[in-house]
Amino acid sequence: MKLNLTLALSACLALVCSPLNAASKDLTAWIIDVEGGQSTLFLTPSGETVLIDTGNPGDRDANRIMKVVKEAGVKQIDYLIITHFHGDHVGGVAALAPQIPIHTFIDHGTSVETTDAAKKTYADYLAIASKAKHIVAKPGDKLPVKGLDWTIVAAAGNAIDKPLPGAGKPNPACADFKPKDPDPTENAQSTGSVVTFGRFRLVDLGDLTWNKEQNLVCPVNKIGEAQVFIVSHHGLNISNSAALVNAIHPQVALMDNGEKKGGTIEALDTIKASPGLVDLWQSHYSAVGGKEHNAADANIANMSTEGDPANYLKLVAHKDGHFEVTNPRTGQTKKY
Question: Model pTM greater than 0.90?
Fold first, then answer.
């Protein structure tokens, strides 16, 4: 049964969603290497867990997620947000679900793609999600995670209609925004989140594409600024407009690209040129980007897919707004 997000999850939180994980004063996120897909695990200050997407079909990505789950001491996934129904985001559900309890599935609703393959991908997901609590998110909905303000800002091709608190300023970058052809795919349906923890803010919009970005930040910036931007669509240039990136005005951008997927020159350059950006971090060295456009080697978790150790990037955020990013490949932790 599909329910209203805020009401249903409030009831869940009060009755059966008590965390099984040790509480921490910090917000921790792991950008898991699913090689050009997406999967990000959040461990909240209350000990609750939110997983955004599950990577590709098969055991590889599910096992990579479970490796991080065990490192984090996680016993269940309280909320699984599926941004959209492409295989590199929803494909891992079938292999992951038998390995760890998933309490609540959240998505944008029925897939808009009608090929036989797309219908099967959606049906396979729904067969699993329908056995648990399954909620369709709408812009403006909140995840009732203790200690955080987690707001859904985009879903099913729609965006929030009013600015978030503290947002709403005119966006000068909109003057140069040029729309692209309409996107009829699931990418444009992506469920996007703005996560606020005290003075710390993070934006993750899944694979939301160019024209839908405009709905969030033009002519006024409805989502506001954030310290961390989870780069949209693996760093492809059909997302990540300057209007969006400049509106978010991140200190740090974290890109979940693969060696041969995402990390396009246009997106890399747009992000690196964003006013106020201190660092770009990448899951993989981008083959198309080359030395000139990629992040510094020290900020790349995996330098080559061949013999790939599947390093994640780890973010630890504090309520006062400062945060750290760790690259296990180098052992480097940088504070912001």
Answer: yes
